[in-house]
Automatic annotation (TrEMBL), chains A, B:
UniProt keyword terms in alphabetical order: Hydrolase
InterPro entries: AcetylCoA_hyd_C, AcetylCoA_hyd_C_sf, ActCoA_hydro, ActCoA_hydro_N, NagB/RpiA_transferase-like, Succinate_CoA_transferase
Active site: E288 (5-glutamyl coenzyme a thioester intermediate)
BP GO annotations: acetate metabolic process; acetyl-CoA metabolic process
Protein name listed in UniProt: Acetyl-CoA hydrolase/transferase family protein
Family: Belongs to the acetyl-CoA hydrolase/transferase family.
Domain Acetyl-CoA hydrolase/transferase N-terminal: 11-214
Molecular-function annotations in GO: acetate CoA-transferase activity; acetyl-CoA hydrolase activity
Residues that hold CoA according to the record: I358, N378, G382, K402
A UniProt-annotated Pfam family: AcetylCoA_hydro
Residue span, Acetyl-CoA hydrolase/transferase C-terminal domain: 329-463
Length: 497, 497
């Protein structure tokens, strides 16, 4: 490992001691991949001590997206979070947010870096960045994610580096660091193909800004996903058949287009199904996250390149990648989230976006963030960045949840993150609803007939088929009746209008 | 006027006779500016004759955005519209849509051209395009708008040109026609400044595709706007003060950034206020529409350049521009709507977007399209194209409507077009709510305190201040109670929760 000697080596607790109540910190991490681990845990320890002594101690926490338990979990349990943005997925932090104990505001992930530079997030006092190497000249080789680390290092005057020996010492070349200038001086983002390299292999900072290096040796806290089950497998097959048919009809080029795919079981199933479908040619990804299933597809040759901002792999899979690094360095680039999710590139490349919904309504609106319209699940993430500019935008979900007591197809989403104007295709285990060029009533029929569970079809049709109120025959008095039924008696079935 | 002689000159009725029931036609027009006038009116005449003879006769109508009464009005009154997309603003067509008699599906305006090329809109049988000149070689000089005319001419095999002598014969040079290639061959849209010219002055088509020229001499059907009143003037001043303060705080560059401004009275008032504010330097617009107030600002020197897709001027103002054309040709470019509204350019230039809302909710979501969630007003237009990628996104509305019986600030918008993730600033006559970096409850307080009418403040605060349900304390059972009160007793006041 290339470890420069000019920087002070400090303990995590020494670093945490330099941080003050009220400071805002930009932490590395996009998913648990490459997230800062030691210093946030030490800050949590310090917060507990301060709180026990009767002193206030909370910090503003900005990251790339979600992180690991050593960051969001530790800080949440220590009640040390003044505010948090953007996406998170930690159960302790989520609980604090939903109980009104922690301020959380959500942002499109591509916009976080520029908002940080433009100043609306206030002063960033420190950047805390995990790295696999640091040179004397201030060249940081990041680890398994880029996220917004480049921006945090640019705007902060003081940088702590967590130098994590767990990662391969050969990662240089995996990253492509490019940060656009701000208006009115911004130029094009010169990515024309998924594998275009446009920046530098390292994150270059003024070495005087690196005020401490914390040495560590810890894996990313990436959990495993559940195995694909019959429902998710069916969703995957439905997506794959739909896309194969679009190629057949000449509405997607025969050479196919880059795929963006969200994170989780459904995304795994979708990628698996694309991999198995002989009508889908070998393809590329331009996405946020590379997860285990992507690695399998790369080995098989079905996936020829993956551009993302994080390598979110289970420890065993990451080890396998590190053992075969030359193969994967030819096939993977990690970029800043501002670039992996940039609307300019998404629109230009013609990305097919595939994201997961919590619920979808009969008009084609999608709820990605709030259960029953109230409790935050994780956040909008990059789903808006990709959906809004996709060549074809797809949302997936199982047709029911909670053993059938919840229909994910509802008269009106209880929280709306993606509007009917931007959502083009809905896929459930039941089938595929193609909403393009359909008016609201046609969309409602398509979604109910193709995507809703048979237990709910009559009920959903009854909601709109006899309504005679306008272009969108919404009945405001009963639009949430199914949600209310669930909240009252834990079952959406049997609602009459 | 440069009029080629190689093309057959036909009457509008002869052209209409060549169109069949079920054909989809792409018409020029973005607002009434540059809209086809003679042929759609003739199609409406033909439809009436066919209907009287007991035969079906309806056509699919695709345009740039809204058009004039000769197009949308005539076709709607003749019941000749099979489907219509995108935006419209004609009262007869709106009524047919809201009574379920005409299919209308809405699209982001920047996406219409690529959707047309990608094939999801089906075959476009004819392009019907207003022009100010046509050369022997198939070079069409458009009139007062570009809209999607270039795309319609590219994809259709047969083109009718309405050669309108009303327009100046010197318009060549006003337009900048550029159509991107489709993925995977698309390159950057090379607009780096508002006045960058990237395409050709004329729309070049295969001359064999021009199957008929209809000669006419008719003005655009642009109506006047109401004069600015005290309410809209206050909104304009609030926007202007907010932006001046952002410059002062260093969050907008001192040289300012390009403005996108919607259409109508509030937009006029905003531009007027920006023009008068000495803290706002001379600026440029990168917008959809140039309306009368823009011309005044150009003459005064406060507006140095305007890029748009239409020149939507009242006849007197258009005449004045035509009389001083060299001055204005140096200061105006009309581009295809795919370019005027392109997310790549909007994000790159750092546009400040200012659009009008029908209603806004306390969480920062915006309804731009549906009154009471049911009846279509006009459509989303370009508001999503600009809002989603703006440097700062602003929505304006008066704090009340219908003499105070409607609060435009509500607990939950009855139709959601722009989500809390993309809406940054709300401005009413009451004040300015800056939503950036605020969590849902903070946003609710900011919007109610700064933007809602005093008659509604206590009522709105009571909705969320005592609710204890999650990150977004929405109460689904009463979220639309104010809308229901209006529908039942024509007044939103006095709702208790």
């Amino acid at each position: 490992m290339l470890t420069a000697t000019r920087y002070p080596v400090v303990t995590a607790d020494e670093a945490a001691a330099m941080i003050n109540h009220g400071d805002t910190i930009g932490f590395s991490g996009f998913t648990p991949a490459g997230a800062a681990k030691e210093i946030p845990t030490a800050i949590a320890r310090r917060a507990k001590v301060e709180h026990e002594a009767g002193r206030e101690f909370k910090i503003g926490v900005i990251t790339g997206a979600s992180t690991g338990d050593s960051l969001d979990g530790e800080l949440a349990r220590a009640n040390a979070v003044l505010f948090r943005t953007p996406y998170q997925s930690n159960k302790y932090l989520r609980s604090a947010i939903n109980h009104g104990e922690t301020r959380f505001f959500d942002m499109h992930l591509s916009m976080l870096p520029e908002a940080t530079r433009y100043g609306s997030l206030g002063k960033i006092s420190f950047a805390v960045i995990e790295a696999s190497a640091v040179s004397e000249g201030g060249e940081i080789t990041l680890s398994t994610s880029v996220g917004a680390s480049n921006t945090f290092c640019n705007v902060a005057d003081r940088i702590f580096v967590e130098l994590n020996e767990y990662h391969s010492s050969e990662l240089k070349g995996l990253h492509d660091i490019y940060e656009p200038k701000d208006p009115p001086h911004r130029r094009e983002i010169p990515v024309y193909r998924c594998n275009d390299r446009i920046g530098s292999t390292t994150l270059k900072v003024d070495p005087k800004k690196i005020i401490g290096i914390v040495k560590t040796n810890r894996p990313d806290e990436v959990g495993g996903f559940k195995e694909t089950d019959a429902i998710t497998q069916k969703i995957g097959e439905n997506v794959s058949s739909f896309l194969a048919n679009e190629i057949e009809r000449g509405r997607i080029p025969k050479s196919f287009l880059p795929i963006q795919s969200g994170v989780g079981n459904i995304a795994n199933a979708v990628l698996g199904a694309l991999g198995k479908n002989p009508s889908i040619p070998p393809f590329e990804m331009y996405s946020e996250v590379i997860q285990d299933s992507v690695i399998d597809l790369m080995r098989s040759g079905k996936l020829t390149f993956g551009s993302a901002t994080s390598l979110t792999l289970t420890p065993a899979m990451l080890e396998a990648v590190y053992n075969d690094l030359p193969f994967f360095k030819e096939r993977i680039l990690l970029r800043p989230q501002e670039i992996s999710n940039h609307p300019e590139v998404v629109r230009r490349l013609g990305i097919i976006s595939i994201n997961t919904a919590i619920e979808v309504d009969i008009w084609g609106n999608v709820n990605s963030t709030h259960v029953m319209g109230q409790n935050l699940m994780n956040g909008i993430g990059g789903s808006g960045d990709f959906t809004r500019n996709a060549y074809i935008s797809i949302f997936t979900c199982p047709s029911t949840a909670k053993g059938g007591a919840i229909s994910t197809i509802v008269p009106l989403v209880a929280h709306l993150d993606h509007s009917e104007h931007s959502v083009q295709v809905i896929v459930t285990d039941q089938g595929v609803a193609d909403l393009r060029c359909k008016d609201p009533v046609e969309r409602a029929r398509e979604i109910v007939d193709k995507c809703s569970h048979p237990d709910y079809r009559d009920q959903l049709s009854a909601y709109f088929e006899n309504a005679k109120n306008g272009h969108t025959p919404q009945t405001l008095g009963s639009a949430f009746a199914m949600h209310q039924a669930f909240m009252e008696k834990k079952d959406m079935r049997g609602v009459a209008w």
